[in-house]
Each structure stands twice: as C-alpha cells, then as structure tokens.
Amino acid sequence: MIEQVCISDRKGPRFYTHVDFPLSIGSHPNADIEIKSGQADYKVTQEAAFLIIIVNRTYIDTENSKFKILLNNEVVSGQKEIQHDDILEIEDTTFHCELIGNTLSISLYEDDSHLVSRNEAIASDGELIEPIIPSEPGTQIKPSRRFTRMFSFIGLLLFGLLAIVLGYIFTAKSLLIEIEPTPDRVALHGNIWPIKVQDRYLVQPGTYSLQIEKSGYRALKSEIEVSKHQSQTLSFTLEKKPGYLNISSPNTEQVEVIINGEIYGNTPIEGLELEAGTYTLEANAKRYQPYTTQLVIEGKEVQQQLNIKLLPDWVNVVIDSIPVGAEIWLNGESRGLTPQTLELNSGQYSLDLRHQNYMPYIKDFLLMPVNRLIFQLQNYLQAQVT
After folding, report:
1. How many alpha carbons fall within 13 Å on the CB side of residue 45?
2. What percent of the chain has pLDDT over 90?
3. 23 near 50, Cβ under 8 Å?
C-alpha cells in the first residue's frame, strides 16, 4: 500500500501524501513535476499529464494530453498504473519508478546510461532492493505548497488579530464603575465588547448597557454614555427591595394600626409591604391607652414581626360613704347609691355625693389607671373612692 510518493526532478527531492494528489506534470515552472518539452505551443497552457492515486495505487493519467508519453516503451492512452521498476518517458524527460516499502520513488535520469535493463537480473527472490535517490549536496525536502499556503494564512490571521487588539488597547478609555453596596453581578455590553482589567473597564467611546444585580436589592438597568475623556468614573447606589411586616396584638382584638398617618386596618395584619426606612406607628383601641413607636423596616424582602401590647385605659372604682345610701353623681350623670363599684375610663371627673340628711360632697379629680382617692365630706359625710 503506497502511503507517500518521492519525486526527484530538477527541483530536487520532495515527498507527497494522498492529500496532495493529483500532481501535475508539465514543462512550466508551476507544475508539480517539471519536464523538458520541445512543444512550445503547450509549454504553459496545458499539463502533459497527471499523477493520481486510486485505491492506494498510483496511475499516470494522459487524458486529452498532446504530449508523447511512454511507459516501458508503450504509448499511454488514458490511465496506466505505475509499478516497481517502470520507466516513464514524457517528451524529452525520463523517470525511473521504484517501490520501496510504502514509498513510490519517481527519479529523474538525464541519460539512458543510468537506467537498468528490464531483462537484466536485479536480485534473487527475497533480497531487499534499496534504490539510490540522487540528490544535490545541501538539498532539503520542501513541504508541499498546500501546507505552505495554510501556514502563511494562519500567520497573517494571527498578525491581524494582534494588530486589532493592540489598536483597541491604545485607543480605549478607562472607566471605573463605583457601586454601593458591593454587587453580586455586573454586566456591561456595547457594540464593541469592553475589556475588564481589575476594577476598571477598557472601553471605546459610545453608548453601553449596564446591568447590576445583588440579592435583596432591586436590579439596576441603565444606558451609560462613555465620552472621549481618557479616565471616567460613574457611581451608582442600589435600592433595597421592600420588607414585609406582620402585626399582632395578643389579648386585644381590633387594634387600629396607623403608619405615618395612613390607616392600614385592624390587627392581625399579615405581609404588609413597606419600603426600607423608619416609620411612626400608632395603635388605638377602645378603652385602651394609645400606643406609639418608631418602626425601622429593614427591607431586602426580610419578614419582620411586631407584637403590640396595649395598656388598659380604665379603672374599677369603688365609691363608698358613711353613712351609706348617698346618691352618686359623676359629670352630671346619676350612677346609683353608695357603696358602688364603677368601671371608669381615665380622665377628668366631677363627683357629687348627695344625702337627704347631709350636706352635698363635691370634688373634681383626674382618674388614672392606678389612682386611689379618699375624699372627706366636711364633718358629716366621709366618701372614699378607690
């Protein structure tokens, strides 16, 4: 099986593999195998023949050729397989063909004295024949033109890419983006892709799309404009997402909740969405003391719990007198006879105790939830308010 072909002509020895085929044979300098020809009309415009490989066998292809081509002194018409020790004659050029292992050697001979007669015994069976391939001192095997063109293209491509990168760097502007707090992700996009170097970006002037993300904060999307100034700085502050507040009032029902002057309903309240910040909260319920507090909402989708415990705004008041049976008047309203236990809200009261055999007892007092009051009705009547 032929894996490579060694051609030795006026250009020197060189090797070809299957991917290099077909090989052109002609008298012009661009031919893969160069020959001498006396046909001037076809010197440049037409190939003499081609070397082709079919199923790991090498053939000479003379289709449509105007040249004189002989293989072992027989005229070749169409395709003819080349075998070991064949003599290939094309016009005024003669080649000797030898098969050495998996290499087919096609060597140029300047005269017939170098050729070996096909009728002459060459070697006995089993003896290895090693041909001598003529070469000039210092001659090196040249790579095929296909590989040379490929390496040249790759070199030009790398050089072009390097030139583009260097041009971008030398004309780029330095952009620093300051973000508070430190984000989880920053993305900067534009027509020309920015290059990040440590904390800065190398960018070309123009419009860019900036996207910033951080857990617990609203995503920031902005169009930014990069000017022609060499160094630029842009600052951004991320906004917290709202927080959620749950409000309950143990042992007290229907407590009205007011936040920053706005009524939010009665307890219990679940999942009240509020922006991060400080608020004033008021809570009111009948017969309870008003409740006011400063409330700090953390935000960032954090759930917070507030339990409101209201203080009673009433007092169980015991009104008694000596003698008993005095009529009780509070703020002009009759409340029965002593002794009497009354449930009174805190506030200002006017007490009037009347008895038919005694002088009236009148007293104004301020009632707080923890009061204990004792009143003297001159020398006639003693009244006690507890």
Report:
1. 5
2. 35
3. yes
Beta strand pairing status for 103-109 and 93-100?
antiparallel
Question: Using CA atoms, how far apart are residues 335 and 307, in angstroms rounded to an integer?
Answer: 37
CB 35 within 8 A of CB 93: yes
Asked if 386 contacts 318 with a C-beta cutoff of 8 angstroms, the reply is: yes
Nearest-5° Cα angle at 326, 322 to 327: 155
Alpha-carbon distance of 385 to 185, in angstroms, equals 71
Averaged pLDDT for residues 3-11:
85
Distance CA 160, CA 153 (A): 11
Ordered DSSP codes for 225-273: EE-S-SEEEEEEEPPBPPEEEEEE-TT--S-EEEETTEEEEES-EEEEE
- In the numeric block, the tokens 């002057």 are attached to 261
Model pTM? 0.48
pLDDT digits (tens, 9 = 90+) for 220-261: 999 999 998 889 999 999 999 999 999 999 888 899 999 999
Q: CA angle at residue 287 from 342 to 335, to 5 degrees?
A: 25
The total number of residues shown for the chain amounts to 386
Which residue's structure tokens are 């534009």?
190
- Going along the chain from its start, the domains and CATH numbers come out as 4-114 (2.60.200.20), 172-237 (2.60.40), 243-307 (2.60.40.1120), 314-385 (no CATH)
| Burial of 152 per CB tally in 10 Å (0-12, 13-18, 19+) | exposed
Reported as type and span, the H/E element at residue 52 is strand 49-54
Residue 172 has pLDDT above 70, yes or no: yes
User: Cα–Cα distance between 79 and 130 in angstroms, integer?
Assistant: 28
